[in-house]
Known about the structure:
The protein is an alpha/beta fold and 502 residues long. 30% of the residues lie in helices and 22% in strands. It folds into 2 domains: 6-96 and 254-482, Zn peptidases (Aminopeptidase, 3-Layer(aba) Sandwich); 101-247, Glucose Oxidase, domain 1 (3-Layer(bba) Sandwich), CATH 3.50.30. A hairpin with a 4-residue loop joins strand 2 (102-107) and strand 3 (112-113). Zinc ion (ZN) binds next to helix 7.
Amino acid sequence: MSRPFLRRGLLALTLVLVGPASAGAAPNNNNSAKLTQAVTVAGIYEHLNAFQAQATANGGNRFAGLPGHDASAQYVYDRARAAGYDVRFQEFEYEAFEDQSVLTRLAPAPQKSYTRGFFQEFVGSNQAPEGTVTDTEVYAVDIMNPPLGDSTSGCEDDDFDDFVAGSIALVQRGTCNFVVKSVNAEEAGASAVIIMNEGNAGRTELDFNPGVAGTNIPVVATSSAVGFELSNGVNDGLTGTRLNLTVDFFSETLTTRNVIADSPRGAGDNVVVVGAHLDSVLDGPGINDNGSGSGTILEIAEQMTKVKPRNQVRFIWFSAEESGLIGSNFYVASLSAAERANIAAMLNFDMVASPNFARFVYDGSDPDAPAGSGAIEDLFNSYFASRGLAFEPTPFDGRSDYGPFIAAGVDIPAGGLFTGAEVPKTSAQVLLYGGTAGIPFDPCYHQACDTIANINDTALDQMSDAAAHATITLAQSTAAVNGKRGKGNFKPKPAPETPIAL
Length: 502
Ligand SMILES: [Zn+2]
C-alpha cells in the first residue's frame, strides 16, 4: 500500500535542495513496487482539490464545453507537460443536450424536491416541449396497485371522464404507448403529464425516458415509488398532491477537447493507452465521477516522469463522456488503421473512489471482449489477490470510454476498474468490502453532492495502486496481452489495410 504522506515529504525536501518540480529529484518508479508507493492519496488529492476549485469557480460543474471543464483540461495539460510528456489538445464540437427539469411537491407537507436522473426519481421526457406548471394538483388516472395485470391508465378516452381540466395527469406505464396516454391527457385538458413506472417486478425503477413527441404540454416520467407517492393513496381522481413542475433542457452546440499526453519514450508501435474522462455532468462538480480517475492517472503520469517505459504510454483525459462517450469516440475515429493497430491495450478508470465502494474489475474474460482483455482483467485480479483484497467482475458493456476501443472492428484489448455508481450495494458485497447494504455505491452519482467530500480515501488508495500496477506492468511488457515483449523483441509490422485484432 502506498503511504499517503511520503510524497509530501519528498516535495518538502526537494524545495530545500533544488527547488520545486525538479526532474532530478524524482525517483525512477520503474516497477510496480516503486510506482504504487509513489502514487499516494495525498498526491491525487492535489488534483482533486484543483478540480473542485475549478468547478466551484465556474457554476459548480466541469461539463464538457463549459469553463469548468476548460479549466480542468488546461490544468491537466500544464501538469502533464511539466512532467515531460508530449501533450496536445484534441478539439471537437458536439451537441450537448441535458435534462434540467425540476419537480417539487408543495403539498402534502413537507415540501420535497425530487431527484432528477435515470434510476433516480424523475426525468423530463426529452421530446416533449419545455414548460412550467406552478402549484397545480395531481389527478390520478386509473392507477392500479401492484401486482396489476394490464394497466390501461390513460389509454382510453373514458379514463379521463371525470378529469379536472388544468390538473396534472398522473398515468401509469402499460398497455398502450406513452404518446397515446399523453395525447389523451392533453385532450382532456391536462396542464402536464406524469408517467409513472407501473410497479410490477422489473418495472419499478426509472430506467426509461418516455420520449413523448406530439404533445404541447410538458411530460415527465417517474419511478413507480414516486408515482405512488404522488397519487397519495388515490387511484382515480384528485390526489391532494400539489406540484411545481418544469421541463427544461440545456441544449447547445459546444466546443471541447480531449487532452492527450504521450510518454517521450517507449515503442510507438506498441502503445498503452491509459484513459479517464475529465468532464462532469451539468449538475455537479464530478469529483468521484470522474475526478477520481482523472486525478489518479495524472498522478501516475507524474510519478512515471523518470521511467523509460519499453512501450509508449499515452494518457488521455477524454471529454464529453457524460454526453455519450463523445470524446473517446472522436479519438478512436481520428486514428488511421495503422495508428489503431499500434495500440496494444487500453486501460480505463472511471469512478475509483465511490463512498460506499466495491472493487469491480471489467470483465475482460467475457467471450465478446477483444482477445487480450482477459489478460488485463487477470492483471488487476492477481494484484488484488496479492494484497488480500476481494474483487469481482463488472459487465464489460461499453458504458465508459473503453467502449469505442473494444467495439467490433476496432478490437483493442481493454480493462479497468470501477467502484460503483447508482446501484445499491448488496449485503453479500458488504461482507466483502464493508460499507452499507441497500444504498448506492455512490449516493451522489451525477448530483451536486459529488464534491471533494464524496471521495472514499480507502477506495482511492487501493484502486490507484491497482491502476499504477497495471500501467507500469503493461508499460514494460504487453506480452500477456498481445504476445509482444517490448523493446528488443519487437519487429515492426507493416501497416495493415484494415483494423486488426491485436
Ligand atoms: Zn463517469
